[in-house]
Amino acid sequence: MVFRRRLKPQTWEEEPKTPDCTKVLLAYPRHATPSVPAGILEAAGYCVSVCESEDDERCPLVAEGYCAVVDDADLIISALGVARDRTQRILSEIDEKHPDKAVLVFANAGDHDSLHRLPERHTVVAPPHSRQELLDDVETVLASHQACA
User: Fold this and answer.
1) Is residue 51 within 8 Å of residue 73, measured between CB atoms?
2) Against a cut of 0.85, is the pTM above it?
3) Domain total of the chain
4) Residue 26's domain is classified under what CATH number?
5) End-to-end Cα spacing for the chain
6) Which of 58, 74, 106, 147 has CB 3.0 to 4.6 Å from 79, enough for a Cys bridge?
């Protein structure tokens, strides 16, 4: 089941059917189609929540200092755009408040000059062009994160 939340996710929509599933939070801009990667991840057995806000003032983690969805996620995937200041604030809050979380950031070739602003522990990759690339990126980040834990 895909757990979709828009703008201000505070909790997972419902308890996952598989309590031990890996929870993935997809942070995507409103104009994107996060249902595609969400569906791919769900089909692979992940529990997925989608936050379609790129507005850091509406992000509960930035605005209020806490977001239950971020708190419960095992992996956070950001496709919000690395060069944006508001994305940098959101990713910095995640890094500061949740240094134990695995974070995967999709960055385009044009984002190269902004990559130095990201926390070093975040894994940065080009946006995946296939189902298998997405799943490989997720598995690599999760395995690397568990090896460091």
Assistant:
1) no
2) no
3) 1
4) 3.40.50.2300
5) 28
6) 106
Q: Could you tell me which of 145, 136, 142, 104 has the C-alpha nearest to residue 40?
A: 136
Q: Residue 149: what residue type? A: A
Nearest to 85 by CA among 50, 126, 56: 56
pLDDT band at 13 (very low <50, low <70, confident <90, very high): low
Task: Dump pLDDT digits (tens) for 62-101.
Answer: 788 888 888 889 999 998 888 778 888 888 888 899 988 9
Sign of the CA dihedral with 30 first, then 31, 37, and 38 last: positive
Q: Which of 76, 35, 27, 33 is nearest to 56 (CA)?
A: 27
- Could you tell me the residue range of the domain that residue 70 belongs to? 2-148
Give the separation between CA 41 and CA 121, rounded to whole angstroms: 23
- What is the residue whose two structure tokens read 């890094």? 95
Distance CA 19, CA 113 (A): 40
